[in-house]
Amino acid sequence: MALADPRLIGPRPHLGVGWAFPVRPVGGRLGYARYEEDVEQAIEIILRTNPGERVMLPGFGAGLRRFLFAPNSAVTHGRVEQAVRSALIDQEPRVTVERVTALADDAEPNLMRIEIDYVVRRSNAFFNLVYPFYLTEAD
Description:
Protein name: GPW/gp25 family protein
Domain IraD/Gp25-like: 34-124
Structural class: alpha+beta
Shape: globular
Number of helices: 2
InterPro entries: IraD/Gp25-like
Distance between the termini: 48 Å
Largest sheet: 3 strands, antiparallel
Strand content: 25-35%
Radius of gyration: 16 Å
Order of helices and strands: EEEEHHEEE
Strand order of the largest sheet: 5-6-7
């Protein structure tokens, strides 16, 4: 069953509108992310944040920096997958996480690609996000 293109559907205020990430002026004004774009940017914020960075939300974030010096191995991939899945399930209620896969990049040994398949619940639209996470392996 093919999913409808979310850009062809009318306004979806239930998905939200917020400042675009990263925050940058656009034509002298703040840029905004709308609907599915807002959801995608929220996921990236979760992935980039460590627990404890937000004073009012101390448990917010996936905490990927704890893997910064880990080897780009199957064990690390499994731990990253679990951390990402748990953070998204707990902190982004607008999505259903379908799959999280962490893979080593063949061309760059210090690059781990985190592939996330998710469905935006209210629109039933399927998305795939590939998040590059650079490791500096310890010798």
